[in-house]
Amino acid sequence: MTHSSQDARPHGIHEEGKLYVVDSINDLNKLNLCPTESQHLFALEEKIPNTGTNPGNGSRGLFFVGLLLVLTVSLALVFFAIFLIIQTGNEMEDVSRRLTAEGKDIDDLKKINSMIVKRLNQLDSERN
After folding, report:
1. 32 and 3 in contact (C-beta within 8 Å)?
2. How many CB atoms lie within 10 A of CB 5?
3. What does each of the 128 residues of the chain score in pLDDT, given as a tens digit?
4. What is the dihedral of CA 77, 83, 87, 92, to 10 degrees?
5. Of 7, 22, 33, 89, whose CB has the highest number of CB atoms within 10 Å?
6. What is the pTM of this model?
7. Selection from 48, 46, 14, 49 nearest residue 29 by Cα
C-alpha cells in the first residue's frame, strides 16, 4: 500500500499534490507515499474554485500596516524619551550651576555676617 517514492522516481522528482511520510529527519531520502485514504483528506483545495484573488493577502497586508504603525509609534516614543533625557540633563546642569553660585553667595554672606559680629563686638567693648 505504501510505496517508496524513490522506487517510483529514482531522481527524487515527486508528483505534485501527493502526501509523503518521512520516518525520521535522517531518512529524508526515504519518502513513503501516504495511503490513498489520506490523500483525499486534503483534496479540499481542489474543490475550492480559484477566483484569482488570495484571501490571505488582505490579512497579510493589514498585518504589515499594523506592524508599520506599531514601529512608527515606537520610534516616536523612543525619540520623545531621548528628547526628555536631554532636556532633563540640561535642567540638571542649570540647577547644579545655580547651587554652586548660591553656595558661593552663602559663603560670602557668612563672611559678611562674621565681620558685622566682630565690628559690633568692638563697638560694644569700646562703650564699656
Report:
1. yes
2. 20
3. 454 444 444 445 555 666 665 566 666 556 555 666 655 555 555 555 555 555 556 788 899 999 999 999 999 999 999 999 999 999 999 999 999 989 888 999 999 999 999 999 999 888 87
4. 80
5. 33
6. 0.40
7. 14
